[in-house]
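[Automated response] Your request has been received and processed.

Submitted sequence:
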Amino acid sequence: MDFVYKQKSNKSFEETKNTLKFELSKVGFGVLWELNFKDKLSEKGLDFKEDFLVMEVCNPAKAKEVLELEMDMGFMLPCKVGVYTKDHAVYVGMMKPSALVENIALQELALSVENDLRKAIDHVI
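Generated structure:
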């Protein structure tokens, strides 16, 4: 099973990041936190040439629903989406929530979250 959904962006890294934030808001997700591994590794004295930005995103109503169905799913929340550069190209993607869920009762909700996040990602490119 493929655990990752990603698309190549035709925009710059910064444009992709900003467009993704906007598109996420249109499907009910807010960005709670961001980490660019390039910057963090540089702070630690390590050279990493590519940008890799991780955004932790959340739709509060869906998060509540997930937690009410299976409290241990909180270990996977919030969802993560990423933007990264590789070989002068920009990619945007995520781990597929549906691939990470074993609880049948949560499968429909995981697919709903996944579809919302895919919609945001697809509107970035």
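Summary generated for your ticket: Strands lie at 4-9, 30-36, 52-58, 79-86, 89-95. The chain has one domain: 4-120.
If you did not submit this request, please reply to this message.
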